[in-house]
Amino acid sequence: MLSEFSLIDRYFARRARANTRRAALGIGDDCALIAPAAGEMLAVSTDMLVEGRHFFPDIDPHALGHKALAVNLSDLAAMGAQPLGFTLAFALPRPEEDWLAAFSAGLFELADRFGCELIGGDTTAGPLNLCLTIFGSVPPGAALRRDAAQAGDDIWISGTPGDARAGLGMMRGDWPIRQMTQMSGEDAAHLRRALEYPEPRVALGLALRGVAHAALDVSDGLAGDLRHILQRSNLAATIDVDALPRSPALARLPRDVQLQCALAGGDDYELCFTAAPARRQAVEAAAQQAGARVTRIGTMNSLTSPRAAPEIAWRDAAGTPLTLTLQGFDHFHAD
User: Fold this and answer.
1) Is there a binding annotation on residue 87?
2) pLDDT tens, residue by residue, 286-308
3) Does 113 have pLDDT greater than 60?
4) What percent of the chain has pLDDT over 90?
5) Are 226 and 237 contacting, i.e. CB atoms less than 8 angstroms apart?
6) pLDDT tens digit string along 65-82?
7) What gap in Å lies between CA 141 and CA 145, rounded to an integer?
8) pLDDT value of residue 20
9) Which of these, 80, 106, 289, 333, could form a disulfide with 66 (CB 3.0-4.6 Å)?
10) Looking at per-residue confidence, does 268 or 333 come out higher?
């Protein structure tokens, strides 16, 4: 039977040591030692994934390994930071070798793609719980911060938000079967993959440095996450809901379900960012360079008065106001 230390060495430490390139001292000591490039700052983020809250108990462990790192890489992408390394701490009910092999494969396949090294961590017995801390580097004046949006900025979104939430709804049976009859097996596979294998937009975040003003990743739903930019930048926003890009799979669902998924669904890990209208060509060029799709969906506005709350005005393509009751995901008030 695997011990704690043989588990770590067999499935994590050996591969981590074999791929150490950026850490001055990687896994295997009391602390790792990392240093960003000269003149750059460290960008640090932590995410926790809990069984039953962030993923189904029967999730493919390969997909879980991918997603555990992807959500952290997405935070670096939102800051325009270059990945350096990460730590992994997790509780595991029992050391099953097949599960560990698949989980570590999913984790390291993504880590290798982005040159992001495992540099330390911890493991213990307990209910399945994953906690990753990731480190990146970014020049001091280049970070894409939430407080840097400006009135008049365009609001952009990458990818097709809503697919992950639609995948979750499909797997949980949230909607009557009659609403799902137009979906093919290919559609269902697309939505499930969007949920289980999110693609961190690291290349896009790097390409937007010097182009975008503010950015964040959409992890808890556009309606909730965009408000973080509004609050930090002290602005309001107008969103054209008909401009929201939707995948063919999502577009086969009823319009009210589409809007709920695209505007209030979580787990997309797409980038929402703002940039001056004069930089539209630069935004398109950055997206092309990164191989990502981006869509302009709205405008940042000045507050109507100094005491006004930063709110989002929802409009259709004709400019008609829409009354939508939307709220981003809340870990303490979720279904």
Assistant:
1) no
2) 999 999 999 999 999 999 887 88
3) yes
4) 64
5) yes
6) 999 999 999 999 999 999
7) 10
8) 58
9) 106
10) 268
Q: Is 219 labelled as part of a ligand binding site?
A: yes
66 is in an annotated binding site: no
Spans of all domains in the chain: 4-138, 146-315
137 is in an annotated binding site: no
Is 45 annotated in some ligand binding site? yes
Which one is the CATH code of 4-138: 3.30.390.10, 3.30.1330.10, 3.40.630.30, 1.10.645.10? 3.30.1330.10
Cα torsion through 171, 174, 178, 180, rounded to 10: -40
pLDDT recorded at residue 283: 98
In the prediction, which pLDDT does 322 show?
Answer: 85
Calpha distance 252→156 (Å, rounded): 23
The amino acid occupying position 6 is S
pLDDT the model gives residue 306:
79
Q: Is 174 annotated as a binding residue?
A: no
146-315 in CATH: which number? Answer: 3.90.650.10
* 256 among annotated binding-site residues: no
Indicate whether 121 pLDDT > 70: yes
User: Does 272 have pLDDT greater than 80?
Assistant: yes
46 appears as a binding residue in the annotation: yes
Cβ–Cβ < 8 Å for 140, 41? yes
Cα separation, 335 vs 333, whole angstroms: 7
HSE on the CB side for 109, CA within 13 Å?
15
- Mutual orientation of helices 185-196 and 61-79 as an angle, nearest 10°? 60
Q: At what angle do helices 163-172 and 185-196 cross, to 10 degrees?
A: 110
The annotation status of 163 as a binding-site residue, yes or no, is no
Q: Would the annotation count 247 as a binding residue?
A: no
| Domains 4-138 and 146-315 fall in the same CATH topology | no
Two tokens, residue 91? 């509780």
146 belongs to an annotated ligand binding site: yes
